[in-house]
Amino acid sequence: MKKYVLAGKIAREAREFGASHVSAGGSSLELANAIEALIVSRGGECAFPVNIGVNQVAAHYTPSKTDDLRFRIGDLVKIDVGAHVDGYPADTSATVEVGTRNHTKLIKCAEDALRMCIDMVAPGTSVAAMGETVARTIGAAGFKPIENLTGHSMERFNLHAGLSIPNIATRDRGTVSEGMILAIEPFSTTGQGKVKNSGRGNIYRVVRERRTSPDASALFERIQSRFGTFPFAGRWCDDLRPDAQSLLPKLLRLGMVMNYPVLTEIADGIVAQAEHSVVVTKNGCQILT
């Protein structure tokens, strides 16, 4: 449990650092690198690359070295951070608006939904009830929850450990139990309430070993050794081999690694997100992040 607590502390500091350093003209690449470096400097490792979702981008965008998004006045920026200590992960996010206050209600309803979900978590709480709470809270503010994104249970070396926490009312009979680690993450949007795949992103994960060229095999072995089961950024591979960017597409074609597509709102609606990791206790839960 101590390692979950430490991972949560590190992730919280990284989230707060990231949110406080979003500014007009700022580089998403420089910000991601700084957040990830902070995690390592505090004794953690990245549980996944920093996700920086701007406006209609809901999830799975992290900058590459050649795709350096810069923030503009009026942007709504989601900073989603994961840290782990010896494989024990924590996951947290915050949303900030750059230089304007046009989306204060959108941000607040996601934060309110998160707070209300956390207040109801205890052994035996149904995930369906949590989803209904999220949907009701966001809907009451005049927005829609994103129905095909969910929170999730976590375990050591496993960010998605089987239990999903919906953002809408469902018939899921799953319940939470004491000792579970949960990432609760409501998404609110001005759009239609769904996300779609919008092309290949820069986040990958190891799938399986296969026979290939010696150079590609060597890169795969280093990726597997360095990142294990956790997602990794394409830009991180440059530290493993100087020719990593030319070999990574080959690993993808062979199914040795998978790619996470960037997820955007289907009607290009603006998206806000709020997230904490919690541990379910005997009578409620404890926020880790």
Main sheet makeup = 5 strands, antiparallel
Q: Stretches where pLDDT falls below 50 for ≥5 residues?
A: none
What is the mean predicted local confidence, pLDDT? 97
Name given to the CATH architecture of the largest domain? Alpha-Beta Complex
Within the CATH hierarchy, at the fold level, what is the topology of the largest domain? Answer: Creatine Amidinohydrolase
Q: Taking strands numbered 1, 2, ... along the chain, how are they ordered across the largest sheet?
A: 7-6-8-14-15
CATH superfamily of the largest domain: Creatinase/methionine aminopeptidase superfamily
Layout: helices, strands, pairs:
Layout: H1 2-20, H2 28-41, E1 45-54, E2 57-59, E3 76-85, E4 88-97, H3 104-120, H4 127-140, E5 144-145, E6 151-154, E7 164-165, E8 181-184, E9 187-189, E10 195-206, H5 214-227, E11 232-233, H6 244-253, E12 257-265, E13 271-273, E14 276-280, E15 285-287
Antiparallel strand pairs: 1-3, 2-12, 3-4, 5-9, 6-7, 6-8, 8-14, 9-13, 10-11, 10-12, 14-15
Describe this structure in words.
The structure is a single chain. By secondary structure, this protein is an alpha+beta fold. It folds into two domains: 2-197 and 263-287, Alpha-Beta Complex (Creatine Amidinohydrolase), CATH 3.90.230.10; 200-262, Winged helix-like DNA-binding domain superfamily/Winged helix DNA-binding domain (Arc Repressor Mutant, subunit A), CATH 1.10.10. 30% of the residues lie in helices and 28% in strands. The protein contains six helices and 15 strands. The chain has helices spanning 2-20, 28-41, 104-120, 127-140, 214-227, 244-253; strands at 45-54, 57-59, 76-85, 88-97, 144-145, 151-154, 164-165, 181-184, 187-189, 195-206, 232-233, 257-265, 271-273, 276-280, 285-287. A five-stranded antiparallel β-sheet has the order 7-6-8-14-15. A hairpin with a 2-residue loop joins β3 (76-85) and β4 (88-97). α1 runs antiparallel to α2, α3 (104-120) packs antiparallel against α4 and α5 packs across α6. The mean pLDDT is 97.
